[in-house]
Amino acid sequence: MPSKYPSKVSCICVVCTKTFFRTPHHAIRRGRTRYCSFACSVVGHTRPAAVRLAERLAPANENGCILWLGSTRRGYGNITAGNGRGPVAVHRLAWELAHGPIPPGLLVCHKCDVRTCCNVDHLFLGTAADNSRDMVLKGRNQVMRTRLTEGDVIQIRTLHQSGVSRSQIAKQFGASTTLIRYVINRKLWKHI
Length: 192
Known about the structure:
Elements: E1 9-12, E2 19-22, H1 24-29, H2 38-46, H3 49-55, E3 72-73, E4 76-80, E5 87-89, H4 90-99, E6 107-110, E7 123-126, H5 128-137, H6 142-145, H7 150-161, H8 166-173, H9 177-184
Antiparallel strand pairs: 1-2, 3-4, 4-5, 6-7
């Protein structure tokens, strides 16, 4: 039976620009298409974070968002900043590169609400309260906005027991999947 993948995938090393080949398993599934050797990966990971950040940014889209194409954690772009700092969110790193250090206690918030956006014009500094207020003003606080009745709670749990997915239940009730999970697991509405 012929494989649905080619036997080898051609890649170009970002450090030495040498062409090398990887099997589809390594190239596609593990994302190992950046370096031809361990030595180049060591050099590649010690390059300045600003260079590594710039390599993985998409051109600005129609909304002006410059999206991160690299790895993510909880939906936010993630990169190792170097200097012993460990992984940091790319929007925070972009802010620091453009404006300097972030004062303690402040967050880098998105005006555009796109978690992978690194456009510094779409970012602003604020406290956790500012970020929450921004979320409420934009109507992104579904858990707080949704009002369920006892009948809704019973129906949600019945639908879940019958095999309907949480995301489908959430759409039906205009709620977030987090709220539906809390109802199903009896973290909310325990008395029913």
